[in-house]
Model the fold of this input.
Amino acid sequence: MRGALMVCGTTSDAGKSFVAAGLCRLLARQGVRVAPFKGQNMANNAAVTGDGAEIGHAQWVQAVAAGVAPTAAMNPVLLKPTSERTSQVVVEGKVWKELDARSFHAAKASLRPVVLAALASLRSSHDVVICEGAGSPAEINLLDDDLVNLGLADAAGVPAIVVGDIDRGGVFASIYGTVELLPDDLRARVAGFVINRLRGDPSLLGSACSDLAARIGVPCLGVLPMLPGTAFDAEDSLALDHPDSAPSGSGDVLDVAAVRWPLVANAGDVDPLRLEPRVHVRWVRSVAELGRPDLVFLPGSKSTRADLSWFRSSGLAGAVERLAVPVVAVCAGLQMAGELIDDPDGVEGPPGRSPGLGWLPVTSAFVGDKVLDRPVGRAVDGPGSGSSVGGYRIHHGRVRPTGAAFADGMAPWLVADDDSLLGWHRGHLCGTTLHGLFEDDAFRSGVLGWAAAQSGKQWSPSGVSFAAARLSRLDAIADALETHLDMGAVTRIISSASSSKDTTP
Done:
């Protein structure tokens, strides 16, 4: 089989990434050389490829599902919001510019050849490319110079399907409205639709799916059930509002409070914690929500100084300090916990400097070049000591200990194989520049065991493997697609992709 498919959705978080990842996994299991693609992504949840390129986290996970190495071509344009009106624009894995919405819209024509060339490259080296759309393809104000939805699909000769989320209600109206709003040439690209996240008996839908198919002229390819336990690796910030199921197993449960900054980044760092059966992870925005957790997690941010100001003004910073419970701070969280954040050139927001919280004797200086790498190392002291650790770094802010840091009780926590420092600890606070660190099972168990000991709870590691759980989740999604979709029809749609339009940007 050769071809391509665009997976669009009626809204953000309708299930595009879910279906795209499932198709990548299902086709890979069938021996198809498949690759993921998203022409333009908007997300502060990013990952770093082996060759130091920055791409959307969803495409990185979809590459894992496909069994191929993630590359910059899989997400040639990545927008990382830095405020309500501006985004850092990453092109072919590297920072290009920071633009407001109007300026980016004007720049899209110049980026279109880059996106088409990336897609053509993937199609020439793989049997099938599964393309993911963004938001809704029927945003009629954004159709000009489209880099990610049906405008791109039309330029590359790629058919599309539309996914709608029935759990939110109004799915038939949203699919109908999406297709009917499209101009005739783009509507012709839509070859079917999928109902996602159904709870209960699909027979209760009656003739609704066939009625909708008759109205819009394309078939219903299937109805996917709600799949509990597959909500890892979510990219859209809306997914953070989906509550986790109650922790399973007997014994004490560890309560982890993750602070949700307004511009939280790399929120997937907590996914391995959520996997543990006797750990409950909560995203908190207020002192009232904080309570008294066993562990506080301070995640990354795309606007560190602004989110630090919010952390203080919300009262959360003071509340966390008064609790004196174990804290793990990653990237921007570490920078906030330090003594000073200096950004003289306005790399991330307006130029200036902000005093940090003073919890660790480190300072952070922002520079234009971004650190993008995947170091491996070990925990040499403190929580998780003796365990290997790995992950990725993705930051402008260089963190350095102050002159008296080690005399002031701070010690190295994580050290890379090249002996560079990746993290520090003092008392109940640990900070690191490394994302993805909890994916190492032994290290995660060590940190959680430390938090349990501090709170006096009886807790022992489950022995679960995050890497195996990720693949199991992807297999579960692939199984659901194989069971509930008309894969014969999907295969025919994929194979109908034109091979004549995708070679010339």
Remarks:
- The chain has two domains: 3-231+469-495, 252-458.
